[in-house]
Structure formats: C-alpha cells, structure tokens
C-alpha cells in the first residue's frame, strides 16, 4: 500500500511551494499572464454577461470587500468580486489557454486579487506573495486537469 494517497501527495507538493522556487522566467511569464488577464478582464466588464452578474451580486454584502475591475467605487464581498471579475475575463474568451483546453489565469487571478484586497491593511501581501499564490493556483489547476480523464478526451470531442 502506498504511504500516501494521491490527494495527500498532491496537497504536500502544493503546500511545499514557496517564493524561492519562482525562477526569473516563471516570474516574467506570470507577469505577462497577469497583464493579459487584467486587460481582457477590463474589456470584459463592458459585456452584457458581466453586467448581469454584477447586478445579481449587488445583493450580497460583507465586512470584507474587493473591487470590481474598472470600477473603483464598486466593491463586493471577495467571493462575488472574484465571480464578477472572472466572468468579465471569460466573457471575452481571449484569455490565455493551454492544451487540453483550459483558461488558467481567468479562473485563478480574480480569486487571488479579491482575496489579497480583503487582507487587513497591516497584513497586506507582497507582490512576490501574489505571484506565488497565482502560480500555486495555476499549478493546482494544471495538476487537476492532468488527473482528469475527461480533460484528456477533450481533443477527441472536437
């Protein structure tokens, strides 16, 4: 019997990641992915889909709040800010992708930014921490995609 389950091993790898493992190449690619996602997301805030989810999400409130991209005066609880900003990114469908088909940054970046904004002022995270969180999210998504039988069959379905 293996000493660890796949889930335990997966969690150990993810938990063990740290900023020292971010090479210059990873940092530069991450910055490019983030900039691309922010650009696509800002453009996406003008779509009907984004307007609808933003209007729906206005019913939620919390002591914590995060910004809707492109609207500094519009804040929502972090969960809903991530949702609205994620819809903005995906509504344009120009965000980054890899094979098998997935859009990693559009799912990860809105959540990372919404959570980072929700931290108390005295506990704000650094830019390097944000890059690490972004890369951990990308790594999690990539590994889950790798484990998925359905994802491996995507090319056959198209």
TrEMBL record:
<dbReference type="GO" id="GO:0006952">
    <property type="term" value="P:defense response"/>
</dbReference>
<dbReference type="GO" id="GO:0047613">
    <property type="term" value="F:aconitate decarboxylase activity"/>
</dbReference>
<dbReference type="GO" id="GO:0005739">
    <property type="term" value="C:mitochondrion"/>
</dbReference>
<dbReference type="InterPro" id="IPR005656">
    <property type="entry name" value="MmgE_PrpD"/>
</dbReference>
<dbReference type="InterPro" id="IPR036148">
    <property type="entry name" value="MmgE/PrpD_sf"/>
</dbReference>
<feature type="domain" description="MmgE/PrpD N-terminal">
    <location>
        <begin position="8"/>
        <end position="151"/>
    </location>
</feature>
<protein>
    <submittedName>
        <fullName>IRG1 decarboxylase</fullName>
    </submittedName>
</protein>
<dbReference type="InterPro" id="IPR042183">
    <property type="entry name" value="MmgE/PrpD_sf_1"/>
</dbReference>
<comment type="similarity">
    <text>Belongs to the PrpD family.</text>
</comment>
<dbReference type="Pfam" id="PF03972">
    <property type="entry name" value="MmgE_PrpD_N"/>
</dbReference>
<dbReference type="InterPro" id="IPR045336">
    <property type="entry name" value="MmgE_PrpD_N"/>
</dbReference>
């Amino acid at each position: 019997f293996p000493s660890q389950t796949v889930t335990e091993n997966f969690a150990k790898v993810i938990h063990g990641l740290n900023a020292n493992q971010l090479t210059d190449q990873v940092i530069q690619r991450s910055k490019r992915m983030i900039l691309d996602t922010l650009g696509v997301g800002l453009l996406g805030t003008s779509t009907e889909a984004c307007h609808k989810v933003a209007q729906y999400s206005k019913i939620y409130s919390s002591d914590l709040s995060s910004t809707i991209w492109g609207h500094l005066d519009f804040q929502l609880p972090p969960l809903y800010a991530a949702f609205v900003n994620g819809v903005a990114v995906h509504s344009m469908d120009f965000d980054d992708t890899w094979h098998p088909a997935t859009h990693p940054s559009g799912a990860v970046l809105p959540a990372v930014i919404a959570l980072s904004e929700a931290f108390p002022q005295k506990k704000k995270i650094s830019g390097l921490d944000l890059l690490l969180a972004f890369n951990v999210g990308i790594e999690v998504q990539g590994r889950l995609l790798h484990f998925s039988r359905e994802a491996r069959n995507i090319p056959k379905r198209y």
